[in-house]
UniProtKB/TrEMBL annotation:
It holds the Pfam family CP_ATPgrasp_2. Residues 74-449 form the Circularly permuted ATP-grasp type domain. Gene3D superfamilies: 3.30.1490.270, 3.40.50.11290. It comes from Aeoliella straminimaris. InterPro entries: ATP-dep_Glu-Cys_Ligase-2, CP_ATPgrasp_2, UCP005522. Residues 457-493 are annotated as: Disordered. SUPFAM superfamilies: Glutathione synthetase ATP-binding domain-like. PANTHER family: BLR5612 PROTEIN, SLL1039 PROTEIN. This is Circularly permuted type 2 ATP-grasp protein.
Amino acid sequence: MIYESVGYDEMFSAEGAPRTACEPFVTRLQEIPDAELRNRQQAAELNLHNMGITFNVYGHEDGTEKVWPFDLLPRIIDSDEWQRVEQGLKQRIHALNLFVSDIYNEQHILRDGIVPRELLQSAKTYREQMAGFKPPQGVWCHISGVDLIRHADGTIYVLEDNLRCPSGVSYVLENREVMKRAFAKVFEGMSVVPVEEYPEQLLQTMLECAPPHVSDPTAVVLTPGIYNSAYFEHTFLAQQMGVELVQGSDLIVDNGYVYMRTTKGVQRVDVIYRRIDDDFLDPKCFREDSCLGVAGLIDAYRRGNVTLANAPGTGVADDKAVYAYVPQIIKYYLGEDAILSNVPTYICSDESQRDYVIHHLDELVVKPTNESGGYGILMGPQASQAERDEYVELIKANPRNYIAQPMLQLSTVPTLVEDKLEPRHVDLRPFVLCGKDIYVMPGGLTRVALRRGSMVVNSSQGGGSKDTWVLRSDGPHSVGNHNAHVENGSSNA
């Protein structure tokens, strides 16, 4: 097996030796003929197709629905490193929940000048309708997806926070199932922490945050419908949790309570895992032309008669300009230094930082503050002069809408390209649940840039994914905040 990595590789050191946590896997991998490895990859792809694991890409010339791209070789994380990541994620989500609550209530952090008031007032995702509101358990961000990257020097950074409707967790679960089917001999006995309990943890989190006066709460998943890019995930999670999947037309609000239409009449709904953006949740409160939401929903929510996960208005904390202040936010609310570092970030609404960005565009990545999916990004070092000139004008016209960061070189993981292994850049999106406690799913969604040299891992931009293995420690402290058993592929493959 010949493999030449560039920069920091997750599986091999610069000298080409397997990293300690990866040695058992590499040993098994070397015993598999190249032709057999390719057959296993094809089997995995066939499994994905037969299981109907898809995603939608709007406006793609080949059609909207696509089979989820998956690479057979996993990303492996040792237990010691994962424990640090897990602690950092819990710290971050705890602080961001306190921040969102403060922003919509006392606003201490603004009065103390830690975060500029004008930055919040100009945020597109700030919802004045939520002012003065406090949700059950004080939880605003029930489900979060935090994107992590590793730079060439080995440092792990938080690239961005996703606190509105983060997607991708269904693919984590299905990637594991496909791996156990297609790669059972390699997977067996590898002491990989299981991920299958996530739907149960998600349901528990939602029910914990139900209105306090409800003794036996009913939860549903609210989807915008079959044409949404993450519709597969909506149906999958509803099925796995054993709750109803509904659209806005299935729900009504009467006398301040939310009800679901059923064949046996109406049934009260107490918790809604909403996969609809704020703007479309309630035509009486947000966009009047929305046909996706439920009229009167926000009134019922503000009365305390239903819980929305995530709460409307949480997007103010994943604004990419606000992201630049998260280390200060953690220090302010928790009195601690951030365990996980931010990528250095320039805020273009600040005049001096904007001037620096404009004069160093050939070194920086420019991002819109509220776009997602990899859209609207300028990779300065790879862009033409004409493209950089265009972005100078965009930044000058609307500086609040842009931030810039140095172009970090994402770490790589061996990826099967035809019949050989090649390095491909990856990131990682762990999923964090916040109810009475904070739960971090072990591992998360490793997204891989399947195009040679590309740093864009989003599925909408041609990326794929890998199974993420968090290895269990042999010591007395298990990974995660649960009593995980060691997963063995032989019983499930």
